[in-house]
């Protein structure tokens, strides 16, 4: 009698047991997809021609995927990620192969640490050593490329190459450095004029 009752109960519960097993499988899949939707990774390869990269996260590496740009409409920006740059993987659908993922670069790593530490500084640095800074506390902008620099704030602007350049401010235009020429002719403070009067006399150094 007991065996008969057990058999009847199993038969009655069989559809529910099967459905519970299906739900457990679905829940496990949802958990897996949720874990895969956002991953921290590092760029390991970049294809500039196709605008795609590969990202390693944990023991896995994505296929070639797109990276996110700061602007991609009527205003567009091109700034490919670098190998070794940290990024966040956003995996639409949470699939295992990462084919639907998008890399969002810009996370500092030991290879590329933060470019600054000031709360008021916006800075861009480039591989060749060029830098572009703007400090919104001092209202000061500076662009440096080797010996060439451009600096300006609310008081004026200065363009220099080495020790030579010009400064423009409210009081006028100022030459800075060793000399000034026009079409190869010295017109700086040390130049002299000939032919002012008959003979070989020359003017004094400009005061």
TrEMBL record:
InterPro entries from the UniProt entry: Gp5/Vgr_OB, GpV/Gp45, Vgr_OB-fold_dom_sf
**Domain of life according to the entry:** Bacteria
Per UniProt, residues of the Gp5/Type VI secretion system Vgr protein OB-fold domain are 39-105
Record-given protein name: Phage baseplate assembly protein V
